[in-house]
Amino acid sequence: MSSTTAVAAPTTASSARNSYYALFILSLINLVNYLDRYIVTVALPDIKKDFQLTNTQAGYLGSFFMLVFMLASPVSGFLGDRLPRRYLVAAGVLLWSLATGASGLATTFAALMVARACVGIGEAGYGAVAPSIISDLFPREQRTRVLSFFYIAIPVGAAAGYGLGGWLSEAYSWHVAFFVGGAPGLVLGAMAFFMPEPQRGAMDGPEAQTKLPFLVGLKGLANNKSFWWTTGGYTLMTFSIGGLGYWLPTFLVGERGMTPGQAGLLSGGVTATAGLLGTLAGGLLGDKMDRRMEGGGLRMSGVGLLIAAPLMFLSMKVSSLAPMFVIIFLAQFFIFLNSGPINAAIVNGVPPAFRAFAMGLNVLFIHMLGDAISPTVIGKVADLSSLSFAIELNALPVMLGGLALLMAGKLFRHVSA
Predict the structure, then answer these.
(1) Is the confidence at residue 327, as pLDDT, over 90?
(2) Percent of the chain having pLDDT more than 90?
(3) What contacts 13, CB < 8 A, 6 or more positions away?
(4) Coiled-coil ranges per the record (predicted)?
(5) I need a surface site. Which of 154, 161, 338, 400 has the fewest CB within 10 A?
(6) What is the 3-state secondary structure (H, E, C) of the chain?
(7) Tens of pLDDT, residues 43-90
(8) Distance between CA atoms of residues 157 and 275, nearest Å
């Protein structure tokens, strides 16, 4: 078999099955990732009560987790470009699952902060590496769709975290919610050891750069304007949606009179449905837009955020629950359109040998300036005014993120090798 044939695409039923098996396992892990991450948000009212926390202090819990996660991500990306990636994935999943269970054992706020930091380290071992594995399993013309399938796990996992966390916190305690949340990852972490390990650049042709000196790759990334505009737009969106996800259940309990179980169930249901439909639509439309023009998926994502911004603002102005959730649904649908196109643009816009680090660097920035600080910032604004006003103000980053993604789409160029 020639080298060209070997790297063109999965040409046998067996290789195709291996590719879809790995995608399935990675997507399940991503679902559990966000389930564990969002359990804490719906359990937050009970955690605040037990540890006597202010809104600002409660925001520290989310921000500290993100701080550790974002700092560990470039390190994970660096290792992911050099070591077998399935081992990094497996180790990361096992670590964060054990740490999630340990969160339920915390008897002090400090102990809970340490446990959540360990969750961040484990998730970083997975988050920066998984998209690079997927990019080496599927050809470029399919990547937006398969990455959209992978990122469906975000809204579904968040919804599961909301629903499971709310139910278990109300029926038992927030401690039990963490114990249950950590269990699935132990099984999936063991399964990850047996995933296929694709050759780097296997779907990018025989001239793809599968080895690249780190400083050379770093210089190329520094000059990649589309990457930085994409990262800027993604950061603004992450600030806003991360802050909304963190505080929405607390808002519904404190300002709309719902129980934690009701808030978790409704928030989770809306997020799961809007996220599922938006992510699937983004994958299909993103591939179609990319075929029409370079950066077409990014341009579509920018338009989606510009539509979502006024909807997010309007949702806090509506006091009736049914219209409010309809508007939140529409805002989240247009936000989740971008999951596949943005991440496909990152892996398609850098050499195969530098994809894991590029993803890790992207993760660093979107969280360092995004949802690592937004829970605390929104909590502080809420302490000074109200939580509803803080969420209204949170629509501004969504609008600015849309403008940044439009610029990224204009500048985008595929990497040819």
Answers:
(1) yes
(2) 19
(3) none
(4) none
(5) 400
(6) CCHHHHHHCCCCHHHHHHHHHHHHHHHHHHHHHHHHHHHHHHHHHHHHHHHCCCHHHHHHHHHHHHHHHHHHHHHHHHHHCCCCHHHHHHHHHHHHHHHHHHHCCCCCHHHHHHHHHHHHHHHHHHHCCHHHHHHCCCCHHHHHHHHHHHHCHHHHHHHHHHHHHHHHHHHCCHHHHHHHHHHHHHHHHHHHCCCCCCCCCCCCCCCCCCCCCHHHHHHHHHCCHHHHHHHHHHHHHHHHHHHHHHHHHHHHHHHCCCCHHHHHHHHHHHHHHHHHHHHHHHHHHHHHHHHHCCCHHHHHHHHHHHHHHHHHHHHCCCCCHHHHHHHHHHHHHHHHCCHHHHHHHHHHCCCHHHHHHHHHHHHHHHHHHHHCCHHHHHHHHHHHCCHHHHHHHCHHHHHHHHHHHHHHHHHCCCCCC
(7) 888 888 888 888 778 878 877 887 888 888 888 888 877 788 889 899
(8) 10
CA distances from 180 to 25, 95, 374 (A): 20, 15, 27
Q: Are 347 and 212 in contact (CB under 8 A)?
A: no
Q: How far apart are CA 181 and CA 35, in angstroms?
A: 7
Instruction: Retrieve residue 26's tokens.
Output: 């990675």
pLDDT of residue 13: 57
210's tokens:
């599968």
Q: Tokens standing for 397? A: 């980053």
Burial bucket for residue 51 (CB in 10 Å: 0-12, 13-18, 19+): middle
Contact indicator for 227, 364 with CB cutoff of 8 Å: no
Amino acid present at 266: L
Q: What is the mean pLDDT of the chain?
A: 83
For residues 269 and 163, the answer to whether their CB atoms sit within 8 Å is yes
Report the distance separating Cα 412 and Cα 393, nearest Å. 30
Residue carrying the six token digits 């690249």: 212
Query: Which residues contact residue 340 at a Cβ distance below 8 angstroms, ignoring those fewer than 6 apart?
Result: 144, 145, 147, 148, 151, 279, 282, 283, 286, 297
CA distance 292 to 135: 21
The yes-or-no verdict on residue 255 having pLDDT over 90 is no
Please say whether the beta carbons of 196 and 406 come within 8 A.
no
CA atoms within 13 A on the CB side of 193: 7
Confidence (pTM) = 0.73
Report which residue type is found at 176.
Answer: V
- Pair of tokens at residue 57: 């202090």
The span from the CA of 387 to the CA of 344, in Å, is: 35
